[in-house]
Amino acid sequence: MVGKSPLILGTIALIVFWATSTAQAAEFGTREEAKAMLDKVVAAVKENKEKALAMFNNGESGFKDRDLYVLCANASDGTITASPTSNGQHLTDFAPGQEVMQTATEGQVKEITYWWPRPGTIKPLKKHTFYTKVADQICGVGYWE
User: Fold this and answer.
1) How far apart are the first and last CA of the chain?
2) Strand partners, 130
3) Which residues partner with 71 through β-bridges?
4) CA dihedral of residues 37, 43, 48, 51 (deg, nearest 10)
5) What's the pLDDT score for residue 101?
């Protein structure tokens, strides 16, 4: 039994490491989840823009998931129409927003990377946002590294 102890301990350590890393990954949204949410955003806006914006703002129907959320703005003037905290502000007031306003294209998903604090924190972290133009809205969903 003594000869098997290191094997058993190694197996237990591996299981604990896997469980810990799985729990940490589940705490935050992933690249794939952000992209999938943006696909749902596009479909919802195409179906009924007003209803979709209300769902995004309320985080209903899976449009708020851990640190993943939807941000939309009017394509014409950049006024934010869906956001957890920035409604009524202008997308161009934020450094990445200027580039997003200039490059958002209907039918194309683009990605921008910048530094931004995760909700509930103040320390900026590397964030990636997928965005596109849909109807008269520019919408995006981002995730943090």
Assistant:
1) 43
2) 111, 141
3) 140
4) -10
5) 97
Quote the radius of gyration of the chain (alpha carbons, Å): 19
* Alpha helix stretches (DSSP H) within 1-133: 5-27, 31-47, 49-58, 95-103
User: Residue 61 and residue 47: Cα distance in Å, rounded?
Assistant: 14
d(CA 99, CA 63): 24
Helix (H, G, I), strand (E, B) or coil at 138: strand
User: Using one digit for the tens of pLDDT, what is the confidence trace for 116-126?
Assistant: 999 899 999 99
| pLDDT tens-place string over residues 58-105 | 999 999 999 999 999 999 999 999 999 999 999 999 889 999 999 999
CB 113 within 8 A of CB 126: yes
| Tokens coding 123 | 């320390």
Instruction: Report the half-sphere exposure of 120 (CA within 13 A, side-chain side).
Output: 4
Q: Which two tokens stand for residue 29?
A: 């949204």
Give CA angle at 93 (113, 83), nearest 5°. Answer: 75
